[in-house]
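Hello Y.,

Per our agreement to keep a running log of every chain we model this quarter, I'm adding this entry. I've kept the format consistent with earlier entries: sequence first, then predicted structure.
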Amino acid sequence: MLSRLALPWLLALHAAGASAATLAGGPMAGPATSEHVGVWLMTNAPAQVQVEYWPQGQPDSARRSAPVATSARGGHIARVDLDGLLADTRYTYRVLLDGAPVEFGEQPAFTTPPADPAAPRELVIATGSCSYIPDSPYDLTQNSFGAGFDIFDSIAALRPDVMLWLGDSIYYRDEDLASTDEATVRMQARWAATRSFEPLQRLLRTGQHVAIWDDHDYGPNNSDREFPLKATALELFRNNWTNPSYGLPGLPGIFSRVPLGDVELFLLDDRYYRDDDASEDPGRTMLGAQQLEWLKSALRASRATFKLVANGSRMLSDRPSPETLGGEGWHNFPRERQAFLDWLIAQRIDGVFFLSGDIHYTHLTERERPGTYPLTELTCSPLTSRVHPRPFPVREVPGTLVTQRNFCTLEFSGPAGARLMRVAAWNAAGTRLWQAEFPAARLRTP
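Predicted structure for the entry above:
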């Protein structure tokens, strides 16, 4: 999988007398189409990997994937493709390592979408950002930057169809990026350490997973397009997620579309083409002109009732004052943002709802627009990282500010013509903190 990334630290670890391989991380299904899904997993030693899968309750009809070999050179990572799926069907699957099944307390499962890409479906998306895993041995104190790892099981207990990771799903350390010669090895080691974290495993095996990045799983804090290792970061991101695509031919990045019935995700890349937030250039950009044109074209073409635009940095928030940057976000690129918001009105694009993370507290932001529906953004953060000590929400919807570790859900229900999105925030123990309803008609131009 890591096509050009040699990992000598793994080669040395398993040079001689390696024992039989075990599963180190996963399995984790990516977003499914009505016919196909990719499954990511990581072993602790070289192995031949296969996946058996069957419609739930029909184990006699199990199919087996083509074998995939994991190796030290590839980080012991495998992506296994499951083909020939049926639309709108719940599937159960299991992993075989060198022909032997891996036993779990609960069999992993996922559900394929309807054959009609715009068909309404019952769907639950869980989401969150800023998942910091400390180095081993874990010495957790009251002031630890990363803690509260029971949140992963709380998410899994809700059995979401999709887990949308809104950036900072790993945290590169300064020492990971200090030496260009060793950075590739250290960066992949950070992925391996995070993905093998035991409290994370049940969630990885639940439903389907899709991700964007922000600064910490891209590079250093507040990093932008000048990060010299961004091509390496992109390759590692691609190897550790199973998104349906990454960028466009000739236009690298992580941006992509993920159709989920009449719900569609528009995943944005807020780092690869980003100028410095503090730049004085009035033409500075967060997304880059080409990615922005891709987003406009994708929104125009979408038939989805709900168009969820996901970005690592906030999209709709404003500066607390003209003299204060107010953290990272699209508000620091006012010309680019205003042109896009004007375009949304001119094109009468319905169903748009924004998602973001990054800031270590959660809230809804609402922006009124004369003559059309208001735009709303859910910012959801943090999962396990430290909560922001002095939150400064701007345009906050009253009653939605959360200043503890948390995750959020978006639940879609109802028949065609009367669809409903329920947005909720939950604490680490899985107790709901607030809920807001967004009928499809509320996100429609009059």
